[in-house]
Specification:
Helix content is about 40%, strand content about 15%. The chain has about 300 residues and is of the alpha/beta class. The protein has one domain: P-loop containing nucleotide triphosphate hydrolases (Rossmann fold). It has a 6-stranded mixed sheet, covered by helices on one side. The chain has a two-stranded antiparallel ribbon with strand order 3-6. Strands 4-5 form a two-stranded antiparallel sheet. A hairpin with an 8-residue loop joins strand 4 and strand 5. This is P-loop containing nucleoside triphosphate hydrolase protein. It comes from Marasmius oreades (fairy-ring Marasmius). InterPro entries: P-loop_NTPase.
């Protein structure tokens, strides 16, 4: 791989608590060690969050959209910076200046977070790079037509919202979802870098239980583990519930984007298998389709299924 002119780009997507960062670290450790000895660069889409002042400005500009009250959602990332970093990693050549990767400190401003200065004190990688791994909860989310949002809102979303007991004041209105959808157009250029995609997905449960209920358990386990190590500092169980609530709309409305790309087919009444086999124009397919892997996880994060897509 080291003889190839450009690195291999791998995207990893999964919900909160699914083990994205853990998997990324395992791959980096394994492939950077003998006998492989590859140059591996890793980053999270979280490190592309806007600086605190811009996050605050976004929230103030859209006071009616609860999804933009804080970081996390599409629209809260610096896409220009992301494209610059990915371009540098792709074009890096032997002997060129080291590339500094951005860092976002989530502990600053009472947990609102801020980007740290890119002043040479952060993570530096030396070109050429063999493998670039980028992970994040919304990796591969593509915009969909407004009519598709309308269909999912009336059918899938109402079911999920009822099963999970979510409040509109936290998860937003249909117009708020359409605002998120609009900014996703900016992310497509970022996705175009990636050759391979790994999706971590919770297993389907019974008809009366939301598939996404597992995500709450995973995130709650993370919070409890952290609090056991830091003297109890962290979110209450109720706060964790509200935290995860804000991300569920993304999975319902955009979570099949890594398969369908800029979806132009009606999937609101289709099963998951039908969605995966839907006929989508080849030109709208993501670049990684045909070279990617779906990893299905049970409640304990054990792998219970693998599927190529």
């Amino acid at each position: 791989m080291s003889s190839t002119p450009t690195p291999l780009f791998v995207a990893i997507q999964g919900p909160q608590g699914s083990g994205k960062s853990y998997l990324t670290g395992l791959i980096q450790s394994h492939l950077s060690s003998p006998p492989h000895c590859l140059r591996v660069a890793t980053l999270s889409i979280d490190d592309l969050y806007l600086p605190h002042t811009q996050l605050k400005s976004l929230a103030e500009s859209y006071p009616e959209n609860p999804l933009w009250k804080g970081r996390g959602q599409p629209g809260t990332h610096d896409i220009v910076l992301g494209l610059q970093i990915l371009s540098c990693l792709k074009q890096g050549r032997m002997g060129r200046q080291r590339i500094e990767l951005p860092r976002f400190d989530k502990s600053l401003y009472d947990g609102e977070g801020d980007r740290l200065p890119m002043d040479g004190t952060g993570s530096l990688v030396q070109p050429p790079i063999d493998l670039v791994i980028m992970e994040g909860w919304c990796m591969g989310f593509y915009p969909i037509p407004d009519r598709e949002i309308d269909e999912r809102w009336d059918r899938l979303w109402q079911v999920e919202k009822g099963l999970l007991g979510m409040d509109d004041s936290i998860v937003g209105t249909k117009e708020n979802i359409k605002q998120i959808n609009e900014v996703l157009h900016r992310y497509v250029d970022v996705w175009s870098f990636f050759d391979i995609f790994i999706q971590l997905k919770p297993a389907l449960l019974t008809n009366n239980v939301s598939q996404y209920s597992i995500v709450y358990n995973w995130r709650l386990e993370q919070e409890h583990s952290m609090k056991s190590l830091n003297g109890g500092k962290g979110m209450s169980d109720a706060a964790v519930k509200l935290f995860v609530d804000r991300y569920i709309p993304g999975y319902v409305f955009f979570g099949d984007g890594m398969i369908n790309g800029e979806c132009s087919v009606n999937t609101s009444t289709q099963s998951e298998g039908d969605i995966r086999n839907a006929t989508v124009p080849q030109s709208s397919r993501p670049p990684w389709v045909g070279k990617s892997l779906l990893v299905v996880l049970d409640t304990h994060r054990d792998v219970i299924g693998l599927e190529e897509f």
